[in-house]
């Protein structure tokens, strides 16, 4: 019997029951780890895309992603909201327009199955009755966040879906042309979006009518973005976490008594050493021997 | 007589449910709005997928009372009554995987690849792993990849590349693994297998009437549950049976039938098979 045959033979020997079981289990554990890691990587990647606008009242993105059950009830409510239904002359319902909200489908490159909207295509019309939010069964759209503290009623103006941002180089108002399309489209015009007038030094006799967004009022509905007349909107809505900076706690407005309260209880610390024993002025006046030399 | 009674009944149920959801979105009907993750019946009764809710819970979400009630209703319905009936009577993927299975049989692919390289217990592992990932990534993990929701949502709210999921499932079941998705991998099927263990609706076998033709074993998507065929007269107890009734359809000898186990001591049971 030569070597080769020997090898084949030993290979063909049936595995013992326990060895078979062990190999089988090992294989399964290996496959489980393989699958689990690939799965985690995918899910982690999928939830990383935060560049999207959520419906009114949505929880913060992390909570939203675990709470939204992807049922689409908000989407159905948005499609069937009052202003969206198309009637024929006899008043019979013949269809609906495309709704603002949509569920992310494969190919949208958004967290799969979650509701979002694209403002340039279909902005949120800020419905007074906000049909989408009470429809949400999971609490991913938080009704309470939209209740006006004074009137105790639903108030769409409290929504914070995003924040409109102006790219001034592509906004023709900054060129000196008269536009104000966004300003007129804004449901909160004069509050969320104001016109700042400045002199046009180039012509010397005209004014710039510049759109300026105020982040405390803007809801991020995107009606301005939809209305913008240039090819790729010069005013556009971004998720607030992308559109806003943060000062942090180490700057305080000295002229604002409210802001002052933030540091009301603060105490300064004085460290005294050889050099700071004297006031700086005294020290300079007291150069002593140094001048004599 | 081999019949297609339950097959047709199932398709009617599956497609009607889909149509109701579709009308809920597109025509504003109130009968059934939402999708299989969560829906609202007649604008009042919530229904939720208990497995999705379990993942949300593990991920650390606050579960609203609506969702919880919905999940309990569905849990009790399948847990007490139907078992895995969700799979064969509701889930849209079942239509795809049944089609793959049919193609396999028709063209004899079964003959080429006889050995099944994977264990049917895989689905319980997938179920476990989905919960572990949900916990660590704080996100309902299966809901982000589920081809069931992809297909179902797609049919109601727009498909996108969701068609790819349909094709992948079909080809996978056809060429890679027989009953691959529904019979080996799908954790939702696994979930219903577990909770359906003590279901009331079961398939009952009468081994005296059985002629051993084994037609039932050819069509059953979970053959292992039919181990008693032609041996003993006991009902199918494994939770993995989907209550699809295909075995009853194809049995020419009245040896199989649905029965509702309300009383335990009724040993032989009533075989109701017209
Ligand atoms: S408030 Fe906006 S998102 Fe909600 S239903 Fe109205 S248009 Fe749709
Ligand atoms: S209704 Fe709520 S849970 Fe359902 S998809 Fe919309 S946000 Fe998610
Ligand atoms: S997004 Fe635009 S239109 Fe909407 S509130 Fe803000 S500034 Fe006004
Ligand atoms: S096993 Fe999964 S995909 Fe198959 S029918 Fe059941 S739930 Fe649907
Ligand atoms: S045993 Fe019968 S009812 Fe159960 S899965 Fe198999 S074919 Fe369907």
Short recap of the structure:
By secondary structure, chain A is of the alpha+beta class. Chain A has helices at residues 3-12, 17-48, 61-67, 73-79, 132-135, 181-185, 223-227, 240-243, 257-261, 280-285, 289-292; strands at 85-87, 93-96, 102-103, 115-116, 163-166, 193-200, 206-213, 235-238. In chain A, the strands form 4 sheets. Chain A has a two-stranded antiparallel ribbon. A two-stranded antiparallel sheet of chain A has the order 3-4.
Q: Poorly predicted ranges of chain A (pLDDT <50, ≥5 residues)? A: none
> What gross morphology of chain B would you assign?
globular
Strand content of chain B: 5-15%
Rounded to the nearest angstrom, the radius of gyration of chain A is 32 Å
Mean pLDDT of chain B: 89
Structural class designation of chain A: alpha+beta
The helix fraction of chain B, in percent, is 40-55%
Q: How far is the N terminus from the C terminus of chain A?
A: 108 Å
Low-confidence spans of chain B: pLDDT under 50, at least 5 residues?
Answer: 265-274
Largest sheet geometry of chain B: 3 strands, antiparallel
How would you describe the oligomerization state of the chains in this entry? heterodimer
Descriptive notes:
The complex is a heterodimer of chains A (293) and B (274). Helix content of chain A is 30%, strand content 12%. Chain A is of the alpha+beta class and 293 residues long. Among the domains of chain A are: 47-160, no CATH class; 162-242, Alpha-Beta Plaits. Chain A has a two-stranded antiparallel sheet with strand order 1-2. A two-stranded antiparallel ribbon of chain A has the order 3-4. Chain A is flat, with a radius of gyration of 32 Å. The model of chain A has no long low-confidence stretch (mean pLDDT 88). Chain B has 2 domains: 2-194, no CATH class; 200-260, Alpha-Beta Plaits (2-Layer Sandwich), CATH 3.30.70. A 3-stranded antiparallel beta sheet of chain B has the order 1-2-3. A two-stranded antiparallel sheet of chain B has the order 4-5. In chain B, strand 1 and strand 2 form a beta hairpin. Chains A and B meet through helix 2, helix 3, helix 4 and strand 3 of A and helix 1, strand 2, helix 2, helix 3 and helix 7 of B. The structure holds iron/sulfur cluster (SF4) (5 copies). One iron/sulfur cluster is lined by residues 87, 91, 93-94, 97, 148, 181-182, 186, 188-189 of chain B.
